[in-house]
Amino acid sequence: MPVTAELRVYWFKRRLFEEKQAYSMKKTVHILAILSLFALSSPSMAQTETINLWPEGKVPNSKQSDIAEKSDTDAQGILRISGVTVPTITAYPAPKDKATGAAVMICPGGGYGILAASHEGSDFAKWFNERGISAFVLKYRLPNEKAMTHQHEVPLMDAMQGMKLIRQNAEKWNIDTDKIGVMGFSAGGHLAATLSTHHNMGAKASAEGKPNFSILIYPVISFLPAISHGGSRDNLLGPEKSEELIRYYSNELQVSEQTPPAFLVHAMDDTGVPVENSIEYYLALKKKKIPAEMHLYPKGGHGYGMRTEGKGSLANWPEAMEGWLYSAGYMKK
Question: What is the largest CA-CA distance in the chain?
Fold first, then answer.
């Protein structure tokens, strides 16, 4: 069959089309490969992992209830979680090329009624990752007599278990077991200070539960009436509130030689949690000759996290924390 000029043109155009399609496919595959490599290597896209603190059906002090966990994000982008009855930790491992071996377990605040899980949790996890420090955001159970027995015991149980899990998985996350600290904000600061002072107390005492350092940001420390945050105290202690428990959970009274070093931040105009909470804890550490660094600022109020715009010199506090972490060997320059 003779090949006409029209047929030659048709086959030529078809060949050009197929070659163009093949080139386009190769280019797409190449771009996708580059994007995949970028995703794996980019610190800002590090893989997180959420782990239940306790095996299913074996959560201590737990009882059946109709309480349901709920998450809400407000117009300022602040995430608040309520009704927590299944505690977890979310791991943010530091990028391997930056990792210093240090790690921090972060306890968000919220008066033991909610968890401010973003600006006092995940935002700081990312900040630590950028500086080579692995971070773990603790979603601890919120005390409620409907969902648990002896509710005042529960947040500390969860914090102890979180610290143990981090230590037990240190090799997996490239962590030095002598460089694991705890950080807490407001009521989360009370939990962090309670872990720091109570890890060696009672039947559940454990060396694995001891933090190597603590970072306490506008923390609730005391339950004594003169300087306490009444809401945090009442939410934690619940119907078992007593003079004995008030003193037991007043952490300035529980500092011992086994309490780890601390870095503290507080604003003098904090009307929610009086600055005396940090001052009393600092003085208790000083009395026991435990290293401590405290930064007090004339204004800032409460609950700011890293949102310090318009709060004067308070904007310098993250830089001060950086310096402290570096001097203690938890961060590299």
Answer: 107
